[in-house]
Amino acid sequence: MRGRALFIISLIVIILASWANVDYFGSVRNNVFGPTVNQAVHIIAFLFTAGVGYVNWRRHDKWINNLWLGIYALVLLLFLASGLLFHFTHNELIKRTGAGLRNRFTEPLPFLVFYIFIALTKKLSRSADYDNKKG
Fold it and tell me: pLDDT digit string (tens) for 103-125?
């Protein structure tokens, strides 16, 4: 699949997964599922977003894909640690911090920011190559 088409499909999939995660499992008004199911679905949605990004960025340089996976691994550890800390302390700030991290990295914004980062990196690389050939 071509790069731009894969990017657009990946973005649409992340948007739909984020919407379903928030609407069905993150909403206060919807208490059909228990907290354990909600937490499991949040983690699955987070890992799904990381996986879609992995599939999308794998055709780029290896360091780009490693950076994407590294960021998501770090955020996963942070929000799991915050959940564990909340379990013992019941501190609302810790709970909100972990939920905020999880929510931000399940949304499409990190995917779009990463795309912009890659585009700028490529542009700067081409500019540096041109300057080196010129001078």
Answer: 899 999 999 999 999 999 888 88
